[in-house]
Structures are given as C-alpha cells and as structure tokens.
Amino acid sequence: MENFFSFFLSENFIPHGHCYLWQPGLVWLHLLSDIIIAFSYYSIPLTLIYFVRKREDIPFKNIFILFGAFIISCGTTHVMEVWTLWHPYYWLSGAMKAITAFISFYTALILIPLVPQALALPSPKQLEEANQALQAEIKERKLVESELRQYKERLEELVEQRTNELATVNQHLQEEIVQRQHSQEQMAELLKELESKNRELNDFAYIVSHDLKAPLRGIGLLSEWLLTDYADKFDDEGKNLVNRLINRVQKLQRLIDSILEYSRIGRSQGEKREIDLNNIITDVIELLEPNKNIEIEILNHLPKINGEKTKIEQVFQNLLSNAIKFLDKPQGKITVGCTEENDYWRFSVSDNGPGIEEQYYAKIFQIFQKLSDTQDSESTGIGLSIVKKIVEMYGGEIWVESQVGKGSTFYFKLKKELQVQPCATPVLNLGLT
Predict the structure, then answer these.
(1) Nearest to residue 9, comparing CAs of 121, 88, 107, 112?
(2) pTM of the model
(3) Residue 113: exposed, middle, or buried by beta-carbon count in 10 A (0-12, 13-18, 19+)?
(4) Which of 5, 85, 285, 381 has the fewest CB atoms within 10 Å, i.e. is most exposed?
C-alpha cells in the first residue's frame, strides 16, 4: 500500500510551475482559470441533483447520474492542474484523466441510443396542445354521456319492443321449420320416385333399343337377301334403292346406339384411376386408322389425370373422328395440344379442314345437329353432344374457333382433380314412326 501511494505521489518530476518559469501573471492566469472551471463543474451536478429530485417523473435518470460523474471527474482534472503547479503528482493527475476518459466514453456510448427516445418526447408546446385537446375531449365526453343516457332509455324501450317482435318471429320460425321438415320428407319421397323413374327410363331405353333393333336387323337381312338372291331380277335403279334401304337401316342402328350411349352418360360411373393421355391418344389413333394422307401430330407431352378411361377415350375419339371425317384437303393435318391453366388442363384438337361458320358454333354441340347434308354420311349428329356432356360432367367447358376454308380448333378444359358433376336426364324425341 505504501509503495502504491509513493508511486502516485512521487515527486521525482518538476512541478508544472517551472514550465511557466514561475512568472506570476502566467501562474495566476492558469490558477484562477482552473479554479473557476472546477468550481463551475462541481456546481453543475448539484443543480442536476436538485432538478432530478424535484421532477420525479423525469425520464432517463441514469443519464443524469452519468452526466454528474462525468462533470465531477472533469472538474477534478482541473483541480489536479492547480495542484501540479507546485506538486509534480503527474501519475495521480494522469490517473484522474484516465478515469475521466472512461466515464466520458461510457457516457457517450449510453447517450447515443437515447437520442431517438429523447427526440420522441413531446415538446412543451405539444403537451399544451394535447392538454387543450384533452379538455375539449372531456367536455365532449360529458355531452356524449348525457346523450348516451337518453339513448339508453330509448334503447331499453326498443329492446322490449324487439323482444316482443322476436317472440312473434320465433313462433313463425317454428311453424316454418315444421313446414320445411314436411317439405324435406316430400323431397325425399320425390327423390326415391325420381330414382325409380330413372331406372324405368334406363330399362325402357334398352327395351326400345331391342324392340327397334330387332325389326331393323330383319329389314337389313331381308334387303341383303333380296340383293343377293334376286340380283339378276333388279336393274341398276332397283339395286340402288335396295342399297339405300340397307344404308338407312344401318344409319338408324347407329343412331339408336348413339342415343343409348348419350343417355348412359352421367347415369353410370366407371372406376376412376390414373390415365396417361399419351397412351389414350395412341390407342384412339390406332383404332381410327386414318388414311396415309392425314398426319396427326401431338404438339407436347400430355399429362396424367384421374378419371374414367372410357369416357376420356370417347372425348378424344369423337373429336379426332370428326376431324378425320370432314378433312377436304389432299394433305390433312391434325394437331393435338395441351396447356396448363391454374386448376385446369386446356386441350386442343386442330385440323386444316373446311372450317365452320361462326353462326353454327353453338349448333354443332346440340344433339342431332350436323352441318353435313350428304345422304351417305355416317354422322348421327350426336358425337359432339356426347363430348360436350362428358366435359361438362367433369366440370369443364368446350368451345370451337374456326376460319372457313382454313380449318377448326376445338378447345376443352378438364379440371386437374376430376369430380363428376350431376347430369340431367336427357329428354330425347326420336321422331320415329
């Protein structure tokens, strides 16, 4: 301990006064200046302490303490300047400066993050304005309280009135619930009756098909026998008439098959499974066996979807079959494409055929409607109706875009997650006599 004090109180140096050559004027100048500065420094913390004690709500009290320590340490360094004029305790003076430096640096670091908070504090003018606004708000609240009391009295009257009205409405609701329950029971009975009618309609369709096909097959066979057994007795016109009769019988048979196929869509549901449309297209093209002058191109890789394989095949088979059937160019070109649109796959089947006039865009999707009037055409006018019904059953849509003489493009959308929508039972007027 003695060595410690002897180190800081060592007088092995020359007093600071020697630097001033002990000139009285210069010595007194530094002496009085340092004493006044030290006195001023020591008085400031006292003022801060008094201020903080009087203002208990003052924020950032810790920074005031740091300011006080910083100012006292600064004042002490000036006291040491006075002392070293005669006593060369420079180690002690340096230590005091080091302490002052540490407190100063620490205070500066603490002060930096407090500046934004201090700037956020409201000014006296802002506080005065807020106080005036508060007084105005108090007056307004008193006025509002008075109005609220009046409203409360009125509200109590309305509540009582509404309560009576609700009681009346509740009674009516109870009666309506009873009526709805009765309606639901009637609806359930109607649904059972509808299911029964659908079954009867399905059975009727097959019965009619059998009863119609049987005599048609007989007429067709008799016509073929006539043409075979009595060929030498028919002239060219007679043979032509018999052949026309056979063709019309075959056309009527195809029409009955198409009607049955159309009526079954939506009533019977097959097993849903993952379908690779690339394989579907390949199978359909092999089945249709297009002529060598017809090129069918798949523009891009087709997706895999979950659905009923037979119905999806019907869609592509009818569209490709129509495109092949009505191509009128020496070199036919059919393209199949697919693009992705949010929750849908959009497919397209394009051809370079004769095209379709815009006025017939809607007509071609109606049952029994066709644009070709040729007598030997195999078209029944149901193919596109079947396609439309299947696409809409899966929640999609189908449309056509075309230019006369340049070709047509049939577009249809299918949801990526196929969900079967209920189909209305078709009403078919065959017009048979």
Answers:
(1) 88
(2) 0.45
(3) exposed
(4) 5
